[in-house]
Amino acid sequence: MIPRRLKRLFHQISLGDQAYRFLFEAGPADEVVAFDCETTGLSVAKDDIIVIAAVKVRGNRILASEKFEAVARPEATLKADSIKVHRLLESDVESGGLIMQIIPDFLRFIGGRPLVGYYLEFDVAMVNKYLRPLLGVELPNPMIEVSELYYERKYGNAPPGTHIDLSFAHILRDLGLPRLDQHDAFNDAIMTAEMYVALKDLRERGVRISRERD
């Protein structure tokens, strides 16, 4: 596997449109972007993004007024299983824009800021699916996985055999955060941002999450 640092350098050199060099430049100090996608299914190769949403975080402040949200009209058919999750029907997305027109606006929103997400790898892979034919590169942004931050704070020093729960609902509950209507892309981005802020604060103060709550 190519180290991420070398891959980033290769992509910077091979960038197809120099107007997007800002992706390789550091964003504003102490700013990140929490983002989430809703998709037609769970196959990166076969499924499409139908909603992409993001919100900026500056320090410990979630900038809810500085958000990105767009509905995309997919080529793939919405699957019954995914409809049960995000409750979006064909009629809800048929008037959406084309994802290849949405991606440039999303890139300008995130800039070079680190990306925060819950099981972020899938969402990034979905964006990269469209980014490669557009620019010939993948997202170069640093990635912050909230489930890893949570694992470190709660289970980092746990003895072997400890039961580990990294579910979205469990993390919210353990951090004392309100649960919004889940599987709405913007709500998920907001809740992910709240997790990040809470976990960042715990780490900065050297506080671990008690396992006695289980």
Class based on secondary structure composition and strand pairing: alpha/beta
Succession of helices and strands: HEEEHHHEHEHHH
How helical, in percent, are the residues?
40-55%
Low-pLDDT segments: none
Average pLDDT reading? 86
In CATH terms, what is the fold-level topology? Nucleotidyltransferase, domain 5
Highest CATH level, the class: Alpha Beta
Determine the strand fraction and express it as a percent band: 15-25%
CATH H level, superfamily name: Ribonuclease H-like superfamily/Ribonuclease H
Give the secondary structure arrangement, pairings included.
Elements: H1 4-14, E1 31-39, E2 49-58, E3 61-71, H2 80-86, H3 90-93, H4 99-110, E4 115-117, H5 120-135, E5 143-145, H6 146-155, H7 168-174, H8 185-205
Parallel strand pairs: 1-4, 4-5
Antiparallel strand pairs: 1-2, 2-3
Helix pairs in contact: 6-8
Tell me briefly what this model is:
The protein is α/β, with parallel strands linked by helices. The chain has helices at 4-14, 80-86, 90-93, 99-110, 120-135, 146-155, 168-174, 185-205; strands at 31-39, 49-58, 61-71, 115-117, 143-145. It has a five-stranded mixed β-sheet with strand order 3-2-1-4-5, with helices on both faces.
Polypeptide structure, described:
The protein is of the alpha/beta class and 214 residues long. 41% of the residues lie in helices and 17% in strands. It has a single domain, classed as Ribonuclease H-like superfamily/Ribonuclease H (Nucleotidyltransferase, domain 5, 2-Layer Sandwich). It is built from eight helices and five strands; from the N terminus they run H-E-E-E-H-H-H-E-H-E-H-H-H. Helix 6 runs parallel beside helix 8 (185-205). The mean pLDDT is 86.
